Amino acid sequence: MQCVHAHLHVVRRSMTNGLPNKAVEDTSVVPNERSRQLQDLAQRVVDALPREVAEEVVLTGSVSRGVADEVSDIEMLIVSPEPMELAACFEHARAAGLEELDTWGDQSTPTRRVSGYLEGVPLELVWWSREYAESSIDSIVRGEMSSAADAIAYGVALRTLGSLSRWQARLSDYPEELARARIEDAALTWGGFTPAGLLTLARPGERLARTERMLDDASRVLRIVYALNRVWQPTHKRLAVRVASLAVKPARLAERIDEAFSESDPRRALLVMTELQSETVALAPDGPNVNRARWWLAAAANLLSTGKR
């Protein structure tokens, strides 16, 4: 049995020319009691899976990071020597004790997904073939956006042939060129049309369009912040916790995103988000999109705060 409760490390990085260049260990996080309980339950599932089918099993999500709570599920990446049919994945999950099995997501991809319950705890099992796992890591390192990067970087091996440690070693290097490219891409939509266009989103009856724009803006802010810190971007869950240890970010990042979406006044909501965007690009290295965004966001913030075109 390979169940070892992990001590997880939060990384900070020293800064040079606007981008981090050196990882420095800041602190360690000891898994909470709920995380230990769920990891033990996950290990029971793994122990029931045949080794010739599941050669590498990685615990991911809040349980692997040690911050699970009473509503957390168990998420695992299961790597098989060869591609698996969904029906076979269902059978292995059922044999491991899971009940109420189902699947989700695009069924045309090489990924197989099985959800279910064990002792009332929800589980999500993601199955990759060995070949697809290796190609996925290659794609991430080349720059493909994927939440799998963060999941694997913080993953805990419940069964391993050494692949996870090798993948994590590759992911420990976040290239500066990739960070700069992601920052420039994120800043692309902040400019190109007149700042007065934002006022159309403050009109009565435009809640959906305004929320759609603000969600995209908030996601781009986070993309820039994670790239500035050269940290693989996670999902938006537990945002305050995920950004707390980042060395480079606007003040009160998570709180201001929440404020923008909870603000009842449309113009004020747009202003809060626009000011956050402006502070974010002020931290970024120069580039065509970033430089344009700086003056465009400043003009937009002035317009929203004064009401003058």
Describe the structure.
The chain is an alpha+beta fold and 309 residues long. The protein folds into 2 domains: 8-171, 2-Layer Sandwich (Beta Polymerase, domain 2), CATH 3.30.460; 176-306. The chain has 12 helices and 8 strands. The protein has helices at 33-48, 61-65, 86-95, 130-142, 148-153, 163-171, 176-186, 207-228, 239-244, 253-262, 266-283, 288-306, and strands spanning 8-16, 19-29, 56-60, 74-80, 99-102, 112-118, 121-129, 156-159. The strands form 2 sheets. Strands 5-6-7-4-3-8 form a 6-stranded mixed beta sheet. A hairpin with a 2-residue loop joins strand 1 and strand 2 (19-29). Helix 8 packs parallel to helix 11. The longest helix has 22 residues, at 207-228. Residues 1-14 and 22-27 have low confidence and may be disordered.
Short description:
Helices cover 47% and strands 18% of the residues. Helix 11 packs antiparallel against helix 12 (288-306).
Low-confidence stretches: 1-14, 22-27
The level 1 CATH classification of the largest domain is Alpha Beta
Q: Per CATH, which architecture of the largest domain? A: 2-Layer Sandwich
What is the spatial order of strands in the main beta sheet? 5-6-7-4-3-8
Query: Approximately what portion of the residues adopt beta-strand conformation?
Result: 15-25%
DSSP E strands, number: 8
For the record, the count of structural domains works out to 2
CATH fold group of the largest domain: Beta Polymerase, domain 2
